[in-house]
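Reviewers of the previous submission asked for a worked example of the structure-prediction workflow described in the proposal, so we include one complete record here. The input consisted solely of the amino acid sequence. No template or homolog information was supplied to the procedure at any stage.
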Amino acid sequence: MRKPSGNGGIREIAAATGFNISTVSRALNNHPGISPATASVILQAARELGYRSGTTPVYAILLPETKMGLAWYSLNMLDALREEAVNRGCLLEILFSDHAEILRERNISGILSFDFASQAVRKLKVVLPVVCVNDFSWHIADIYSVCSDTGQGVRKAVALLAAYGHRKIGLLINGDKNTESNRERIAAFEESRSVYSLDPVSAVHFREYGTFDLPMPYLHASIRAMVKTGVTAIINGGESESVEALAAIRLCGLRVPQDLSLICWEVPRFSRFLDPPLTTIQQNFPLLAKRAFDMLESLIRKEKVSSDVRVDCLLHERGSVSVPPAEH
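From that input alone, the workflow returned the following structure tokens.
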């Protein structure tokens, strides 16, 4: 393949690759009759030439690998990205990270990744604009992130509990304590301990990932241990765990909020209908999606992006927080 001159037309791509114009056209239009090897060569040449088709742009959405279930967070983030794509008149191709090599064979304009587990984009040798959603853990080349400020969300939650008079507060961290998001939550909580003069029993508790098919709520052991320390309020992370948290607290023989106040992460169209309606921290999924598309389109236009974008969380005050119970 000769070196492209940079004009970016179909004829030049054909000349650069040695394939005929018909084959190049089919590859650029993601025709199923093109072999993966042929498509990969043609698309790589097109990217090096700066080829733009002029048709509706297609973006890839990269999800975590297939062995990971799509829980509330992933579904709400995907829904927000879909709505933003409709607003912008672009198309989406949705892939799991363990199938990411298919991107070599597809003519797409850029990648939006919330592959928060395996970071397949880092290994994928395709020169395309990439924006990561809710992943601050690495920066290479021009890859930046649009992320929820989860530390800000924790600070707002502690401030609300402190306003109700709580000084014995527990933060339950789910999963790997070393992820950037969890480190931010922990740092925000530790900062709040000092700001609001929290009681020494206020602490961060950790729980490894569990399964949702156990006969007893898998948060039960963690919440029972926290209750035994004397906390009067719990902040529980994770969009998919609000019902588990409520069931676990009831198994401890306690009522929400009369005996124990609870703040969880928001599940849109769901959290407000629980009993009691949950007070929640919410990731602003529509704004995350908008900022992610803004950044990706800036990169496609060859504009400089030099920093991550943070999106504040929202706080919804409902019925799961009250004043702490009187001590006996």
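Residues 1-7 have pLDDT under 50 and may be disordered. We consider this example representative of the routine output the project will generate in years two and three.
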